[in-house]
């Protein structure tokens, strides 16, 4: 039995303008290989119950893994969920009501699209020149600018994306629909998966006021629970790095009624993990999960050895 849990965090299966990959087919094949590997070599457990077991001091199966997906990309329900269901593996999907309703802008995909179809050879932003003369250069520039925009609050970030789009003068096919809607999200439940909260509109919470944070945390939980008629008490912090949420955010998450919250801070979850700051390891459909598990095993051994020496 185990006292540790490896929580894996996905976004998409097929490549997008913001989350790059090889090809859609490579993403699908890669995910199917990962699922076969997970089914053979690990014990995939539901996230919510596994975290409750850790908190209560109950042991988990050996090589326990929980699968999570952020944002609600359409391929989560058309590709990932059916593949997992066929293999008998559960997953938790952290959804954004504003994306399900198509009322909140997905700024990182809009930015990636604008850079991918830029018609200017360079763009200056925040005093820095970014080369946009080749596809590779445009991708590098988009990633760099996206990182800079994460330092802004929601309103300034949306305004910046609009301004950048004007400067880049993109010319290409429209972005198209990338995210599931409410009805499609219901299919996740029918396939035996869990739906949890990823805020109302995916702001980076530490950049927002306490009032705005409380609204995002409380209303997203209520909207999802009311619509799907089931409890929603696990949160994924948008972006999820240490700088993307604060001690105040954690306190507000507890006040909003969440029992657990996951981050993107890389580590194994254990009995001593703060319930509202659970670590995760981010992966994509083309990640070699064998290496991820080997790394997790090395970490676990060091922890055990350190406790033994102590």
TrEMBL record:
Instruction: Check the record and name the InterPro entries matching this protein.
Output: Glyco_hydro/deAcase_b/a-brl, NODB_dom, Polysacch_Deacetylase
Q: Which Pfam families match?
A: Polysacc_deac_1
Question: Which PROSITE patterns does the annotation name?
Answer: NODB (PS51677)
Q: Which residues form the signal peptide?
A: none
Q: Where is the NodB homology domain?
A: 63-310
Q: Which CDD domains match?
A: CE4_NodB_like_5s_6s (cd10918)
- The answer on whether this UniProt entry bears the keyword Transferase reads no
| Keyword line | Signal
A biological process (GO) of this protein is: carbohydrate metabolic process
Molecular function via GO: hydrolase activity, acting on carbon-nitrogen (but not peptide) bonds
The identity of this protein, by name, is: Polysaccharide deacetylase
Where does this protein come from, organism-wise? Geodermatophilus sabuli
């Amino acid at each position: 039995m185990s006292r540790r849990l490896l929580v894996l965090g996905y976004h998409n299966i097929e490549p997008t303008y913001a989350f790059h990959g090889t090809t859609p087919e490579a993403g699908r094949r890669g995910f199917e290989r990962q699922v076969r590997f997970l089914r053979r070599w690990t014990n995939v457990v539901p996230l919510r119950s596994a975290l409750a077991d850790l908190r209560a001091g109950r042991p988990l199966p050996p090589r326990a893994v929980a699968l999570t997906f952020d944002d609600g990309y359409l391929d989560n329900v058309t590709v990932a969920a059916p593949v997992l269901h066929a293999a008998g593996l559960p997953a938790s999907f952290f959804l954004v009501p504003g994306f399900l309703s198509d009322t909140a802008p997905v700024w990182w995909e809009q930015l990636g699209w604008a850079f991918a179809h830029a018609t200017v050879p360079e763009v200056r932003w925040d005093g820095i020149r970014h080369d946009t003369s080749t596809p590779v250069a445009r991708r590098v520039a988009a990633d760099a600018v996206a990182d800079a925009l994460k330092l802004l609050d929601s309103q300034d970030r949306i305004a910046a994306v609009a301004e950048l789009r004007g400067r880049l003068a993109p010319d290409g096919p429209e972005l198209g629909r990338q995210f599931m809607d409410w009805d499609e999200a219901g299919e996740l439940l029918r396939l035996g998966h869990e739906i949890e909260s990823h805020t109302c509109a995916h702001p980076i919470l530490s950049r927002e006021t306490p009032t705005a944070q409380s609204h995002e945390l409380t209303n997203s939980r209520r909207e999802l629970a009311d619509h799907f008629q089931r409890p929603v008490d696990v949160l994924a912090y948008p972006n999820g790095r240490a700088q993307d949420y604060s001690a105040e955010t954690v306190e507000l998450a507890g006040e909003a009624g969440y029992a657990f919250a996951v981050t993107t801070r890389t580590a194994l979850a254990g009995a001593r993990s703060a319930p509202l700051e659970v670590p995760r390891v981010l992966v994509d459909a083309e990640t070699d999960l064998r290496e991820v598990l080997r790394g997790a095993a090395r970490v676990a051994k060091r922890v055990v050895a350190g406790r033994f020496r102590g």
